[in-house]
């Protein structure tokens, strides 16, 4: 977003006192409190759905809901001069969750479990709610595995290979076998029944739960924002997303993994099906697939050095990752 985007504020019934830059956004001090003006890649209908979710959570006691404000036309999305869709929503500032601090990480895991207890909203009849369902994980794994094989075949045919490509070929079998194992375990688990039950009950997940969407406004206060990827799904998807990021950054230290699981479990106890699901998600080598996908969708003639370094780090962590997975299997 640029300063021209601030003109969209004129389309709201609001008095703007001051503005300053945030991360890809503008933080606005207004007569109605602190607001965030940010670009939005979701549709108007999706944001109406997200607002319904947040309103329901607020009624259940979540005080930090970043609910979007309607403009003068009664719409949640407003187009700026660059034809970019923007949204203006309630905002609460604080420091971002520190991935190196287990105190922050444990508090965040507890907050996530608390949110999951609130995040139930049965789809309304004759609405689009039923469209906001997460992809079937079996289909996702199948697609990712096909893509991994495609990248492997492409690199093998290249006559001159760079450092990333040589490293990829050398470690491919190790990660691909794990990807296949995760798929087979998913097929033999109770995932289909769990997913169906969660969606029937109206269980929702944040959809993009990571440290960048978690802030600490004050002591023992945690603000979780940016629910625009919210959807009906197995809620432990959020725990997986957060846990994988933290464990990668902390090089799969077993004790820290147990502390995350224990912190979540104290607020919302997981059953066997949920634990099996979480294990299978952690077993799948998603970071390896992401690196392969980034490589294939960029110009193959040039691979950033950072991608090779990321792959080296992934390989170096594999033994510790496997050791942790074995303890929670």
TrEMBL record:
Cellular component aspect of the GO annotation: endospore-forming forespore
Span of the signal peptide: none
InterPro entries: CotS-like, Kinase-like_dom_sf, Spore_coat_CotS
Protein name according to UniProt: Spore coat protein, CotS family
Source organism: Marvinbryantia formatexigens DSM 14469
